[in-house]
């Protein structure tokens, strides 16, 4: 058994800033929409302006331009959808669909024995796909990945119900609550599940030196 304390999943994943930033433009949309008498155009404009402001602030602080461009593109796409349909709730449609896709993708990754939590953590730790050689770690990642499936499914259910009911203000609130707070909870719970699935003598997310590729059937 290793004498070093195991790293928490939160320490490895990080990502708090990105989740927080992603929740700000939707708040801008709802605020603009309400302030202008439920005008979709004003709401869309406010969301884009807020997204640009957040992007400029992050770039000035040393943020990655590529990630910020992707975030801005997502906000612009959501705004264009709402402008095209004329329905304020459709600003959140792209977010709803992305969570549907994420839930299906994470579930499928578990079924095919390539749990995405393992893929992500493996890349962050510089292990690439070597973690799959450890049958115990593979099983642990699979169990913990179901927590992420549940996260995306919860968003789909809540967003879907509010979107179908046209509850724009509630969607804005849900978009904020189900961003970083839910992500933080998901990281904590999935980390607990992950480490609970590993025996005490296991080195944790760092691979044991004796791990072999023939430990995992079909690897």
TrEMBL record:
Database matches in InterPro entries: UCP010219 (IPR016566)
Pfam family, one: DUF3159
Record's keyword terms, sorted: Membrane, Transmembrane, Transmembrane helix
Ranges that cross the membrane: 40-60, 67-84, 104-125, 146-166, 178-198
Keyword Repeat in annotation: no
Keyword DNA damage carried by entry: no
Protein name (Swiss-Prot/TrEMBL): DUF3159 domain-containing protein
